[in-house]
Design goal:
The chain has 216 residues and is α/β, with parallel strands linked by helices. The protein is built from seven helices and eight strands, in the order βββαβαααβαβαββα. It folds into two domains: 125 residues, Rossmann fold (3-Layer(aba) Sandwich), CATH 3.40.50; 64 residues, no CATH class. The chain has a five-stranded mixed sheet with strand order 5-6-3-7-8, with helices on both faces. Strands 2-1-4 form a three-stranded antiparallel sheet, with helices on one face. α2 packs across α3 and α3 crosses α4.
Length: 216
């Protein structure tokens, strides 16, 4: 269970705090695949980053006993001066994994980086970093995978590989997903969180949530 308790997020401006999310209070069950819906600027990616521990609430708490991924395809959390292999080892240490060899080779193979795997991540193109980030995410068995527009990663063949790998993971995990493609959300999710006017409402039905979203 993921519990979001009275969470608000704001950013300081010269005119005072600008709230993106305000007083969110909801729970995400372990057995639901959840879409996050909202118009542009409603805080979808901000909420996803907070769920993944990449960002933090201005106040309130997010509590969970689940092993939650960072947002898949997020490429800003790696050490730019370290190679792809060194970054994998670094992430493994953070998560308490001592034997890193299998994960290193998995990421190298899945990311299709070849010799570039031994180069600094800061030298990668945006496409290479996105592939690398997704591959690192797939190297761990998370309880919950956070997905932010994952269909934008790589070419058609690589996106197909991403979907297949994620589907295999979902045998023992759930997903929380942001996407502008309703067909993907209906295919992958069976519940939703609708963000509107800085607040959030949890829906047990993805169809009902999409109906409300279309009528904002």
């Amino acid at each position: 269970m993921i519990k979001v308790k009275n969470v608000s997020k704001y950013f300081p401006t010269r005119f005072g705090p600008k709230y993106v999310l305000k007083n969110l209070d909801f729970q995400i069950p372990d057995d639901r695949d959840v879409a996050i819906l909202g118009i542009n600027g409603s805080g979808k990616s901000t909420l996803l980053r907070m769920l993944g521990g990449i960002d933090f609430p201005s106040y309130g708490r997010i509590v969970s006993d689940r092993f939650i991924s960072w947002p898949l395809a997020l490429s800003s959390g790696f050490q730019r001066h370290m190679s792809g292999r060194e970054n994998v080892r670094f992430v493994c240490r953070i998560h308490g994994v001592r034997d890193t060899a299998d994960i290193e080779e998995y990421v190298k193979d899945f990311s299709e980086l070849g010799k570039s795997f031994e180069l600094p991540v800061g030298d990668y193109s945006s496409g290479m970093r996105a592939k690398y980030s997704f591959a690192v995410s797939m190297g761990f068995d998370f309880d919950t995978y956070l997905i932010d527009e994952i269909t934008a990663v790589g070419d058609v063949a690589f996106r197909r590989k991403c979907k297949t790998a994620l589907q295999e993971k979902r045998g023992t995990a759930n997903v929380i997903m942001v996407s502008h493609e309703e067909a993907i959300l209906k295919e992958q999710c069976n519940a939703a969180i609708l963000l509107a006017y800085g607040r959030a409402e949890f829906y047990e039905s993805i169809d009902r949530a999409l109906y409300r979203y279309r009528n904002l």
